[in-house]
Specification:
single chain; about 220 residues; DNA polymerase, domain 1; about 10% strand
């Protein structure tokens, strides 16, 4: 890892334990629309996609479009499930506090909409750890992941050179986006196959508690 000044976190699956919930609700929504899908299939097929991309992929796969209101239906059901079930990823709060105490900048760059990221961080108690202006969405740039646009936008907004950023991601498409942006990337492999993240270009991180030491920080938050 470089002498980093900015750590860019993905949100879903990295800071908040949302991937299982989202996959389950997506599977239910697709199945109700006449496209039988399991939660595992939803995750394997659609992880890291924007919702319009999910709709396009479902059309290509099944030969017919989803109902016009499927995104609204999905987002309402997901919001209710998040309110009841969403939790922070173990070690997320401690890792962010250690990094920022050491003088590093931290931001969030998610494929999801900003309001979803804000809600996720609020529900899990992580919102106070991030400046409201340090949250970024793929909906703010021309292309989402795996294009580099989102990470480059986040770095420019935070005033950091790409080479001085480190991205923490849990999806191969997110890893590829970081690589395309010229940023070192740590692949959080709690629920994603480590081999898929490695092949995309990540160094593997099995727990967020490892993050400070990987970045060269001591347990007290000082530079090693």
């Amino acid at each position: 890892m470089p002498d980093a000044e900015l750590i860019i976190f993905d949100c879903d699956g990295v800071l908040v334990d949302s991937e299982g919930i989202s996959s389950r609700i997506l599977a239910q929504t697709l199945s109700a629309a006449g496209l039988p899908t399991s939660a595992q299939q939803a995750r394997e097929r659609y992880q890291g996609m924007m919702l319009d991309e999910v709709g396009a992929a479902a059309l290509a796969q099944h030969g017919r479009p989803l109902p016009a209101d499927w995104i609204d239906t999905f987002e309402r059901a997901r919001g209710a499930a998040f309110a009841a079930e969403l939790a922070p990823v173990p070690g997320a709060a401690e890792a962010v506090r250690t990094l920022t105490s050491a003088g590093l900048l931290a931001c969030v760059a998610s494929q999801g909409k900003l309001q979803k990221t804000r809600l996720s961080l609020e529900l899990t108690g992580l919102a106070p750890l991030f400046d409201p202006e340090s949250l970024f969405s793929a909906y703010q740039v021309p292309r989402g992941k795996p294009a580099p646009d989102l990470f480059l936008h986040a770095a420019a907004s935070m005033g950091a050179a790409p080479s001085r950023c480190v991205v923490v991601e849990d999806s191969p498409s997110g890893v590829r986006a970081a690589v395309a942006a010229g940023m070192p990337v740590l692949g959080y492999a709690a629920e994603t196959e480590a081999s898929a993240l490695t092949q995309a270009g990540a160094k593997i991180l099995h727990s967020l508690s490892e993050l400070p030491s990987v970045l060269g920080l001591t347990p007290s938050g000082a530079r090693a």
